[in-house]
Design goal:
Blueprint lengths: L1 H14 L5 E12 L4 E4 L4 E4 L13 E9 L2 E9 L1
Parallel strand pairs: 3-5
Antiparallel strand pairs: 1-2, 1-4, 2-3, 4-5
C-alpha cells in the first residue's frame, strides 16, 4: 500500500507540470510592448508578468531576469537593469 501511495505521488508531481524558476541575463534585442515581452540577443524570449514593469526597458540594455515557465512561455517574475 505504501509503495502504491509513493508511486502515485511521484506520478502526480511529474504530470502536474510544476513550474520551475530560472535566471537569465543578456542584452535586449527587441521589445514588444503590446505583447508585454522582450527578446534577448541570444534569442531568448521573455514575457513580463502582470505587475512587472516593462516601461523602463530599452533596446540594447543589459538585464537580468528571473522567470518561470508557464503554458510554454518564459514569464518574468522580476527584471532588473544592469
Amino acid at each position: 500500500m505504501r509503495k502504491a501511495l509513493i508511486g502515485a505521488v511521484a506520478v502526480l508531481l511529474a504530470v502536474s507540470g510544476a513550474a520551475w524558476a530560472a535566471d537569465v541575463q543578456g542584452k535586449i534585442k527587441s521589445i514588444d510592448v503590446t505583447e508585454k515581452s522582450f527578446m534577448l540577443e541570444d534569442g531568448t524570449k521573455i514575457w513580463v508578468a502582470e505587475g512587472v514593469s516593462i516601461d523602463s526597458l530599452k533596446e540594447g540594455a543589459e538585464v537580468k531576469a528571473s522567470y518561470e515557465e508557464k503554458d510554454g512561455k518564459n514569464v518574468a517574475t522580476s527584471v532588473e537593469m544592469k
